[in-house]
Amino acid sequence: MALYGPRQWAGHHRPRSSRQPRSRKRGSVGMAAAPCPAPGDASDALPPPLETRRGRAGAMKLTRKAVLARAKAAELDSVRKLNCWGSFLTDISICRELPNIEVITFSVNSISSLEPMSQCQNLSELYLRKNRIPSLNELFHLKNLPRLRVLWLSENPCCGPDPHRYRMTVLRNLPNLQKLDNQAVTEEELSQALVDGEEITAPPAKRNLENGYPEANESSTTECTTEPKSEHLNFTLEETNKIREQLGMKPVPRDKFSSFSPRETDGSRKKRNNILNAILLLMKELDTEGLEIIHQTVGKRLQALQKKELQEER
């Protein structure tokens, strides 16, 4: 065994200055770590960075150029598969120009509407895990896609707290699915969905992207003008105070509150509860400025109702 002196031994070590700098790995300081695709998510590896266009309010829009580059296609008509996993997308309106698309992977984005995919008649697989789909009413846009067989929609706000109701509602409206959320669909589930699932017969209200409020249309305006006033005032004390608690407001005393519609049908109560649940769900998505606007609006509305009640009592 050879022995080395201090200088000879030091010579066997590469000087610190001559070491090659280590390449920074994904997830190190200065670079956000991206989550890994789930098995079966049609994306075994992270796709390359996607070139998008930032629109209003910071929205990330999927562009024609980005689609062609990702799909390695010359024209939109020739795009069959599109993988935009984890690309911070909010606007996918370009999907309206993809008539022959068969497989779409949009998991881990910020998509809130499925309407742009309503005309993708050849679509067979759709991956939307971890997005911002707010309501199961968005399924209305997928009901006329005859070839859709695989849908992954889990980890979206629309899934709600009841997994059984969620799965039954999806299968009732999309009975041709063979796999939902990476689980095979059985004949027993399809039969049970006819009983436990909720049928969706209308699309969700359109939203104005500029201000974030629902967009009024002719039919909704007509309904509002012909609807009895009692439908708008049909809230119990408990439900009113629940909304006020969410907004950080003091509850209304029982002696200062009374219902304007003492008699109500089961249908009106169900409609009211659906509206209330939708409001509470959407509130979770609002920032401080949005909550302040709701706080002021609700306060003014309650004051007007209480003032009207006092006038009727006189």
Fraction of residues in β-strands: 5-15%
Strand order of the largest sheet: 3-4-5-6-7-8
Rg is 27 Å
| Approximate shape | elongated
How many alpha or pi helices? 9
How helical, in percent, are the residues? 25-40%
Record field, number of beta strands? 8
**Oligomeric description of these chains:** single chain
Category by helix and strand content: alpha/beta
Overall pLDDT score: 74
Most strands sheet? 6 strands, mixed
Keywords: Leucine-rich repeat, Repeat
Protein name: Cilia- and flagella-associated protein 410
Function: Plays a role in cilia formation and/or maintenance. Plays a role in the regulation of cell morphology and cytoskeletal organization. Involved in DNA damage repair.
Region (Disordered): 1-58, 204-230, 250-269
Can you walk through the features of this model?
The chain is α/β, with parallel strands linked by helices and 314 residues long. It is 32% helix and 6% strand. The protein contains nine helices and eight strands. The chain has helices at 6-10, 64-71, 163-173, 187-196, 218-226, 229-232, 237-246, 266-283, 288-313; strands spanning 53-54, 60-61, 81-83, 103-105, 125-127, 150-152, 179-180, 183-184. Helix 3 (163-173) packs across helix 4. The longest helix is centred in the last third of the chain and has 26 residues, at 288-313. It is elongated, with a radius of gyration of 27 Å. The N and C termini lie far apart (110 Å). The model is unreliable at 6-13, 23-34, 208-234 and 258-264 (pLDDT under 50).
